[in-house]
Structure formats: C-alpha cells, structure tokens
Amino acid sequence: MANVAFFGLGNMGGPMAANLVKAGHSVKVFDLYDQAVQQLLEQGATTASSNQQLVDGADFIVSMLPAGKHVEGLYLGEDGLINYIKPGALVIDSSTIDKPTVVNVASALAEKGINFVDAPVSGGVGGAIAGTLSFMVGGEDADFATAKPLLDNMGKNIFHAGSYGAGQIAKVCNNMLLGILMAGTSEALQLGIANGLDPKKLSEIMLQSSGRNWTLELYNPCPDVLENVPSSNNYEGGFMVDLMAKDLGLALDTAVNSQSSTPMGALARSLFAIHAGQGNGKKDFSSIFKMFDKE
Amino acid sequence: MANVAFFGLGNMGGPMAANLVKAGHSVKVFDLYDQAVQQLLEQGATTASSNQQLVDGADFIVSMLPAGKHVEGLYLGEDGLINYIKPGALVIDSSTIDKPTVVNVASALAEKGINFVDAPVSGGVGGAIAGTLSFMVGGEDADFATAKPLLDNMGKNIFHAGSYGAGQIAKVCNNMLLGILMAGTSEALQLGIANGLDPKKLSEIMLQSSGRNWTLELYNPCPDVLENVPSSNNYEGGFMVDLMAKDLGLALDTAVNSQSSTPMGALARSLFAIHAGQGNGKKDFSSIFKMFDKE
Amino acid sequence: MANVAFFGLGNMGGPMAANLVKAGHSVKVFDLYDQAVQQLLEQGATTASSNQQLVDGADFIVSMLPAGKHVEGLYLGEDGLINYIKPGALVIDSSTIDKPTVVNVASALAEKGINFVDAPVSGGVGGAIAGTLSFMVGGEDADFATAKPLLDNMGKNIFHAGSYGAGQIAKVCNNMLLGILMAGTSEALQLGIANGLDPKKLSEIMLQSSGRNWTLELYNPCPDVLENVPSSNNYEGGFMVDLMAKDLGLALDTAVNSQSSTPMGALARSLFAIHAGQGNGKKDFSSIFKMFDKE
Amino acid sequence: MANVAFFGLGNMGGPMAANLVKAGHSVKVFDLYDQAVQQLLEQGATTASSNQQLVDGADFIVSMLPAGKHVEGLYLGEDGLINYIKPGALVIDSSTIDKPTVVNVASALAEKGINFVDAPVSGGVGGAIAGTLSFMVGGEDADFATAKPLLDNMGKNIFHAGSYGAGQIAKVCNNMLLGILMAGTSEALQLGIANGLDPKKLSEIMLQSSGRNWTLELYNPCPDVLENVPSSNNYEGGFMVDLMAKDLGLALDTAVNSQSSTPMGALARSLFAIHAGQGNGKKDFSSIFKMFDKE
Predict the structure, then answer these.
(1) Chain B residues with CB-CB distance to C277 below 8 A
(2) Are D258 and A246 in contact (CB under 8 A)?
(3) What chains are in contact with B, requiring at least 3 Cβ pairs below 8 Å?
C-alpha cells in the first residue's frame, strides 16, 4: 500500500480520495474547506498543517482542482509543493485544464526529479463515488505503469493517451464530440416530432441505424423516452450546461492554439453558451433539447 | 408467393428485385434502360410492354426511383399506374423523396381503393445485394403487416415509423444525424492529431467513452484506423458526398417547411456542399475528414 | 395614364394600389377581404365582380400575394386570369415567391402573348405608404422599360436584376445578407458589452471602421443607441422575426436547389428560427440581439 | 516636439515610426532585425545599445509587437523597460493582443507611476505608410488626451474606446464583424451567381439595399466587380487569411473568457481556418469567396 497526498476534496475529489482510503492506502488530504477535510478524516484519512508535512514521505501526490491557475499555484507557487515532494515520487493531476499548463508544471517538476502524469476523468460524481471513472492519462510509459494500480482503485477504464498533456487533449476531443452528439441528436428528434413522429419510435429506429450514438443509447434528451435519465427528471442531476459550455470553450481554445478548424464543435459551444445565458446553466446539458422546441 | 410489379432497376432497385425473384415471387420488372431489364430477366423476372400489362394481376407494386417527380409521374401522370392497379393491391414506394409528394400520391391512390406505404431504405448497394437493408415504413398498420413479408425478403430491419410519409421523415432525421456524426467525429479526430495524439488511440478512447457513435465504430473517417472502410481505401466506394449533401438538403427543406431549427444539420449540409463543390462529390462522405487537414 | 388591375390589398398591396390611384391611373382592385377593397374604393379605385371584368381592358396587372401557390392559383388556376388578360398586356407580380413558380407562370402566360416581370419589393409598410419601395425586377428589357413608369409611382429604386425570376433571386440574396448582418452585428455588440464597452461608443467606432453595415447605421439592434428604431421601442414595429425566418428559409431552399453552400445564411436561419420558436416571432428581427444576453 | 522610444519596426511599426520622425519628434528606435533599425536611421531616427539608454529621457514609449508574450517580455521581463522608464512617461502599446496581458502590464507600470494606453490599429500597411490608421485606444481620459497628438501623426481616426484594454476589445469586435461581413457577402454573391445573376448587378442592388456593408462597398470579394481590390488582383496584397483567422481566434478566446456566445463569429473563424488549412493562408482574406465556388 502506498503513501498518498491528496489535494482538492470537491464533489469529484472527495469520493476519489475516499476510494483510495478504502483501498487501504495511507492518505493525507487537504482542501481549503475544513468541512471537506473533516469528512475524509472520518473515513480514515489524515491531514497535516503545512504543505511540507502533507507531502512528507508521499509516493503519490494526487490533485483535483478547478482550473490551470490553481494547479500551477499548488505546485509552483509560493510555498509550492515542488519544494517538498521527494525525487522519484509521482504527481497525478486529475484536474481538467489546458495542455500548456500541464507541460509547464510537468517540466518544472521533472527538473527536480519528480514524475508527472495528467489524468483527467470522465464519468461524473456518480462514477467518482462508485469508483468507475474513466481516466485519460498523459505521460511516460513507466509513469503510466506506476500510476495504473492507484487509478484502478478510483476508476474502471484507464487509458494511456500519449505523453504529457495527451490526457487533457483526449478529454477535450471526447467532450467536444459529446456536445456535438447531444445537440445533433436533440435537433434530429425535434425535427421528427415536428413532422409527426413519435420520439420513442424514432429513437428506436435511429439506434439500430447509422444515427446510433452514446447520447441516443444512454442519455436520450427527449423526456420519457428513457427512464432514469435527466431528461425524464426535469433535466435535473447529470452534467451541467455550464460545465459542457466550459469544456467546449476549452476545446475551442485548443483549436485556436493549434490552428485547427472545428466548425461543429464551435457551433455546439455557441448553442450551449446561448442556452446557459438564457438561465439554464445549472440544468443537465441534455436540456439543449428544449432550445429546439416551438412554443 | 405473390405477384409483384417492380419499377426502377438501378444500383439499388436491381438487386432488390433480384432478391424478390430469389424468394420465389413472380416478378414483372420495368426500367427505362433495357439493359437493366435484361439483367433481371436472366435472373428469372419477366417484363411486359405496357404499364397496364406490367401491373395486371399484381398484388404488390414496388418502386425505387430517383426523385419525387418520377414517383408522381409513374403513378399519377399520363398513362399512370393509378389507372391500372387493382383495388386492394399494395404500393410500396422505396424511393427517398419528400413527404408532400408521398401524401399526394397516397391520397390519390386511396381514392381508388389502392393501398400505399412509403418505405425508404438505408444500407447502401451492399445491403441491397445482401438483402440486409433497413426499411423505414410509413403507412397504416394493416398495410405495414401486408408489406412486411415482402420487405423481409429484401432487408433485415423493418421499422414501422408511423403513418403516410413517416418513413421518409425517419430516414431524413437519421441521415441528418449521420452527417452530423461524421463531420463531428472527423473534426474531433483532427483536433487530437493536431495536438499530437495517435488517431487509433484516440478512437479507441472515445469509443469507450461518451463520444461513441456509429461512424467511430464502423466507419472511421481517418485512414488506417479501421480496415475495409472507405477511408482506408482512398475514400472510394461507400456513400457518396453528393448523396449525403442531397439528403442533408432534404432535411433542411423538411426543417424549413416545419419551421424547425436544425443548426447542426444545416452546418453539416454547408460543409458537405462546400466539399462537393471542391471536387469531392463522387468520393465517400467520410472524406469530409480531409477538409480539416492542414497543408 | 394606364388601365391597371390590382390583386392583393394587404399591408403592402393596399398602399401600393393607392399610390397608383394617386398617380392618376385607372385602377380596378380585388382582395378576398371586402374591407380592403372598400378602403381603396374610397380612395378612387373601382372594382368588379369577376376576374374577367377585373382585367377587362387592363394594360397592367399587378399582384401582391403571400406565397407561390396563390400566384399560381390566380393566374393559372380555375377561372385563372390567363384566360382573360389581353395579349400584349404586362403582368407585374410583386409577391416574394420562389423562382420555379415565377418561371412556370411566366412561361404559361408567354404562350398566350402575355408579358411578365417579377418585381418583389423591399422597404416595408412604411416604404409602401411613402412610395419609396425598392423593386428588384426580373424580365426582358422591353418589359422592364414598360413596367418602370408604373413602378416609379410606387417606389424609389427600381433595379433590373436580369431575366425571369432574377428579381426574386436578388431579393433572396439581399435579405439573406441582411439576416447575417443583423445577427453578426448583434453578437459583436454583445461581445463588447460583456467586456465592458459602451455600445454607443463601440457602434460609433465600428461605423467608421471596417465593420460598417446597414444595420449598424440605420437599425442598431442594441436599445437606446439610435432613436426611432425598433430596438429603442421594445422591438415593436419593423420587420418581424417570422418574416426574416421565412426569407432565410427561402434562401436555403434556393441554395439547396442550386447546390450552393451558404453556411452563414444557414446559421442565421437557424438562429432566427430558434428565436421565433422561443416566442419572439412577432417582434422586430433586431430582437435577435436579446438572444446573446446573459441573464 | 517629444522624445519618443519606439520598439518593433515590422511592416506596420516601421512606417509608423517613420511618420513620427517626419512629424519632427526625436525618435529612438529598436528592433531585433538590424536592417529594420538601419532603415529608420536613414530616415532620421537614432538608436542606442541598451534598453536603459533607449528609454532614457523618453516622454513616450511606443511598442508594436506580434503577441502578448512579447509585450510582457519587453516591459516586465528580464532587463524590462519597467526598470528604466521615468515616472510620468506614457507607454502606448499598439500591438494587437489579449486584454488580460494589457491589464497585467498596465497595472505593473502604474505601480511605478508610468502611464499606459493600449492602442491597436486598423488600416493595414497602406494606412501605416500614409499615416491614415485608425487607433482604438483604451486608457484614462488624461492619458488619451496626452497620446492623441502623437497618434494624430500616425493616423486619421483616433477613438477612445474606454479604460485599459478597451482598445483591444473594440478591435476584436470590429474585426470579428468584418470577418462575418466578408464571409456573408461572399456566399450571398455566390448564391446569386449560381442562380444566374450578374455579380456586378447584384452588388449594385445590395449596395443600395439593406445588404449594404463595408466589404460590398470597398472590398468586393468577387473578381472584377471593383477595380484596385485584391479580388481583382488574384487575391494578392490586402489582409491575409492567416491574420483574419488569428483575429477571429482572438475574438473566440475573448468570447470564451466572458461566457459570451458568438455563433456567427465562431463559424467565420472555422471557415477562415479551413481556408487557411487548404493552402490559402497568404492570400487576401476576400479569397474566402472561392470557397463557395462550384468546380
């Protein structure tokens, strides 16, 4: 069993850390919110009063933070972990951030002999609790091999996408495509409905035809076609419009930086941003279906 | 076994008629090209020298024509079949045409006691030959039940989408979604490639994640990820760009007529139309992937 | 002065006919609504009880109807005007309709020796009343020359766009571009506002720079930048969203029929259709500005 | 007359500095390319061998650099100008960069008592040489007033857009709108051409109608409608596709950062990026017209 330091105990990070404790690791945790720390202590984690003490003796440092600036601050900022992590330890950053930040942090750590993988996740809060997340990992083969057993304690599908930052890119591509699938499936169903088709029947036909896709199969945006999905629960729960808009924004930034053209992804970003701007930011992202309603 | 009259022996209609012959039906065929007729005669069909004789005694009349005006002409035009088909017979029109034409023809036939279903197909020439087409059928329950055994001889999935014209609408919705999936998957893969990912690896990751869709699974647009798909064969064979552009145009017309908004489908139509305009109309539609290349 | 028969006395047709009366022509009028006819009689027009009598002796027949089917019905339908108009007379159809209908009607009339121009207008109800409409005319040079003096009584700019149907195409192109200008100007202004700019100041800057366009100059979509425009009057009056969506739909149909790609126009159509679907169909089309608001 | 230090003597910066010399100012210049410096020396500028000496005694420091990182490096980097500029002097940065960098640099300078305005330009190389550039200025009223006489020596329209960074935002909004106008005008003209209209005639009609805009008036993208524009010169000269794609990328980043939705601008960016990727990056941006050609 390993010594782990875990930073960031939010909706995702909290249950991920808890799964590491359950798996028998010795886990020291930190979060700006005492309550989040307290909850983990009750489940068997420990904590410490300084960054130095938190990473003292740690073989793995896991971080799950909101944005690139937080990751940069934690590792490279004032009193940054870079000063305390022991050479040979492995940093696993599961935050969803931009690739340039990943490369910047990984390079700085490498100069001190500290290893790094980026390992953003998909699967949501439910997957974090159940330990069934997907991890998209960027980094060297050896580091991926070292990280894998730990990631197995928190997830089900562990992919090695390539070198530093490749995990972030894979996630950005996948989520951009997801946004496209959801918007496209929504308007196809609405076009059918407006022309007299039953959405259940149309969904069934397209699922067995070339329109088949993940959203149609597991996350139908039309109410009452599938049970136990957000659309059948007033678009509550699930993956928020604001988060999809954020991920699509990250995809656009990535496209702009690499001179790539992503017309469908750019349009999907515009649609979700309009939808968020109309007061739907906290609803599930399948509510984009409602944008194509006719009053 | 039934008496069938079959009109339209093109790339699709020819093998469909052949499958009816193989199934043991008595099939009289017609096409403007004598050679197409000749080929079917060799396989056991018969023909006749007038519309009247062709449908004489037919229980089923099947048509597979290029556009709405041909369908209207065949049934309602000068010397139209409406004058000769016996009351109680069933017309199965498998052409991909607009719903208003379907309704117009079906209504006129109904006044003479002739039954009608629209039954457009998907599955391509390969599916027509193998008898594995999907049929999306619009019409009354009783007529669907009557048509089903015959359609089973030509296809694998036979869907009852709803009343008159519903088959056409279902096909339009599915193919619009297919166009969206193909364009979206192409740009997601290209975004990954431009940022250093291996397209095989990225495809594998997205296939097991929320980006999963029919094109990624069976028709990957990036060369050499899948074998035996058009992208690995210089984008030859398969479903032509011109045809995808036509289907997306039909989807847009349907959207305009029903005051529906289909932003993703409309953009996909623009992209495929640009691609066709740049000289790629006869290539497989997965070649849209090349539009996002960087020279 | 000429003998004119005028069909269609709606919001546009009524004041157009009135301007012909004022110019001293002898005008016989017809509309399905008696009240509309009554109003013109009070202004000096006459009427008659049959199509035959209405066009009896007419040198010019002007029509202003809602859609292609009405135009086709009036001229070619049962008891159609084609049976009564004298050879050598000139039909001026000012309805905004599709080019195929224009060509169909014009050709049928030509066989009887009746001349035809399509002459759709822009300039709105205000322009119709003031006699300052723009006419975009399709037809032969001689017919344009014949029509011009009459059109001068109803409008200010009379353009000869080309042969039959060219007037319709010119109007469709212009109005598609107008939709693009309005949507694009709206989002540019909103982007500035979201980043702290004063919309008046930004409008002034762009008006003197390369962003200058008709909407920015005469029809600013941001409230209180210009006086006496719909945006400063709660988006009332002006050109309705429903009508802009209709014109953009006509543009898309034209693009589909000619295998043209109009990505910006197709997107504008989607945005206006969504906006209409959200209950804004009767507002002025500059209200698309509100779609980019953030709550 | 003022003491000016000028950094960045590229295609734009070189002639701008030359105009300051012509106006009688005492100008010290610097560029990484000796040849660029040499050219200015011949026109009456001076230079110096260190940053310290270059800004020694300068009332104005003007910079014209390619990207935000260069601006940050020049002022705040190692041996940065912040260490040498005298309190009370005014920095005028005319680079086109992102607002966050502007705010960062301006704030750092302010702490040392150094004043700052951002003043990006439009008008191209021709405008830089002729001294007819437009400047969009962000900064405090007093600093704008101080900068104005100097900017008048280099430009014609000097706009005060708002506080720090507002100049950049105004430029981004205007250029995004310009990209939309150019793409939209191109496809409207092509739609007309595909339906038989003469592009000259159509341009003339739209110029006098509600489709009027800067590109139609001064920069028609269809060859041989206007003389002396890039489209009539094989799309050479003018404003490169690569630069338009860059500005639209900056607009998208701005939209993403402010949660704004800019669907038309995002689509325009995709189209120009595709066009650049197809080998047209060095052509004038009006060549987007060719994308809508049909082979």
Answers:
(1) 259, 261
(2) no
(3) A, C, D
Around Cβ B207, how many Cβ atoms within 10 Å?
A: 15
Contacts of B274 in chain D (CB under 8 A): 291-292
User: Please, which residues have CB within 8 angstroms of residue A50's CB and are 6 or more apart in sequence?
Assistant: none
pLDDT tens for A222-242 read 999 999 999 999 999 889 999
Residue C35: how many other CB atoms lie within 10 Å: 8
What residues does C133 pair with on adjacent strands?
C155
Distance CA B176, CA B244 (A): 8
Residues of chain C in Cβ contact (below 8 Å) with chain A: 263, 267, 274, 276-279, 291-295
State the amino acid at position A126 in one-letter form: G
Q: Which residues contact A35 (CB under 8 A, 6 or more apart)?
A: none
Q: Which is the catalytic residue, given D28, D171, D246, D290?
A: D171
In this structure, the number of other CB atoms found within 10 A of the CB of residue B262 comes to: 34
Residue positions counted in chain D:
295
The 10s digit of each residue's pLDDT in B56-82 is: 999 999 999 988 999 999 999 999 999
Those residues whose C-beta lies under 8 Å from the C-beta of residue A228, and which sit 6 or more positions away, are none
DSSP string, chain D: --EEEEE--STTHHHHHHHHHHTT-EEEEE-SSHHHHHHHHHTT-B--SSHHHHHTT-SEEEE--SSHHHHHHHHHSTT-GGGTSPTT-EEEE-----HHHHHHHHHHHHHTT-EEEE--EESHHHHHHHT-EEEEEES-HHHHHHHHHHHHTTEEEEEEEESTTHHHHHHHHHHHHHHHHHHHHHHHHHHHHHTT--HHHHHHHHHTTTT-BHHHHH--SSTTTSSSSGGGGTT-SSSBHHHHHHHHHHHHHHHHHTT---HHHHHHHHHHHHHIIIIITTSBGGGHHHHT---
Residue A158 backbone phi and psi in degrees, to 5: -115, 110
Per-residue pLDDT of C203-248, as tens digits, reads: 999 999 999 999 999 999 999 999 999 999 999 988 999 999 999 9
- Confirm if B268 and A180 have CB atoms less than 8 A apart: no
Cβ pair D177:C185 closer than 8 A: yes
B96: its two tokens: 């991909």
Residues A116/A90, Cβ–Cβ less than 8 Å? yes
pLDDT of residue D210: 93
Q: Do C273 and B260 touch (CB under 8 A)?
A: yes
CA distance A112 to chain C (A): 41
The stretch A179-204 carries a mean pLDDT of 98
Helix or strand holding residue A15 (H, E): helix A13-22
Look up residue A105 and give its two tokens. Answer: 């942090």
Tally of residues, chain B: 295
pLDDT of residue D115: 98
Phi, psi of D115 (to 5 degrees): -90, 160
Tell me which chains share at least 3 CB pairs under 8 Å with chain D.
A, B, C
* Cβ contact, residue pair A263, D270, below 8 Å: yes
Beta carbons of D31 and D9 less than 8 angstroms apart: yes
Chain B to chain C Cβ contacts (< 8 Å): 55
Q: Helices C199-207 and C166-194, interaxial angle, to 10°?
A: 130
Residues 6 or more apart in contact with residue A142 via CB below 8 angstroms: none
**Model's pTM, two decimal places?**
0.94
State how far the Cα of D52 lies from the Cα of B22, in Å rounded to an integer. Answer: 92
Point out the catalytic residue in the list C69, C148, C156, C171: C171
Select the residue of B276, B277, B293 nearest D277 (Cβ to Cβ). B293
Sign of the Cα torsion D112, D115, D121, D127 reads: negative
What pairing do the DSSP bridges indicate for beta strands C133-138 and C121-122? antiparallel
Closest CA to B291 of D274, D65, A264: D274
Domains and CATH numbers, chain A: 3-163 (3.40.50.720), 169-291 (1.10.1040.10)
The verdict on a CB contact (< 8 Å) between D188 and C195 is: no
Q: Match 């696993």 to its residue by tokens.
A: A92
